[in-house]
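Lab notebook, design round three. We kept the backbone fixed and only want residue identities now. Task for the bench partner: fill in a sequence for the structure below.
Input structure tokens:
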């Protein structure tokens, strides 16, 4: 899978991605069948592409960087993935407002801003907590630097699990 250089587009490691999907499936891979995903700050698209490979119906990749969006398209093309994908080339706030206005709803939302953008967690998770994007049983996963705790709750979103692996952490949230 192709990636951009630099720290702002940091692909989720294979090991962390495997942990993420093991937690979500908990031995029941069928839970991902037909699911709808939103990959915010998608970078290379690795997490969304992995979701598709595990049976997700569709993934909307939100990526502000034209270069990163191009990499996502190239990665999808190299894997012959043509259906069930949308690339939204806007900043996260604008893309989420657009998706909310369209009454798009997702089963899973993966949020992975550049680690240095601590305020992005507050903005995105806070918006999601009051949006129509989440269903009552949706799961929001935030990848973050292990030294940064995004928080226990954001409005209706409540963290139910936190994992640290290497330099990264995953926080799992559900609507409360």
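Proposed sequence:
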């Amino acid at each position: 899978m192709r990636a951009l250089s630099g720290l702002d587009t940091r692909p989720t490691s294979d090991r962390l991605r495997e942990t993420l999907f093991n937690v979500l499936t908990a031995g029941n891979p069928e839970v991902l069948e037909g699911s709808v995903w939103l990959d915010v700050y998608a970078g290379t698209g690795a997490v969304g592409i992995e979701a598709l490979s595990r049976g997700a119906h569709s993934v909307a990749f939100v990526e502000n960087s034209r270069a990163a969006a191009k990499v996502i398209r190239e990665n999808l093309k190299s894997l012959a993935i043509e259906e069930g994908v949308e690339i939204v080339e806007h900043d996260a706030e604008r893309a989420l407002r657009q998706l909310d206005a369209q009454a798009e709803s997702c089963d899973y939302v993966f949020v992975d801003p550049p680690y240095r953008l601590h305020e992005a967690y507050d903005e995105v998770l806070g918006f999601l907590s009051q949006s129509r994007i989440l269903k009552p049983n949706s799961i929001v996963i935030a990848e973050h630097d292990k030294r940064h705790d995004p928080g226990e709750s954001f409005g209706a979103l409540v963290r139910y699990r936190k994992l640290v692996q290497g330099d990264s952490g995953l926080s799992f949230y559900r609507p409360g």
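Keep this in mind before ordering anything: Residues 17 and 47 are 7 Å apart (CA to CA).
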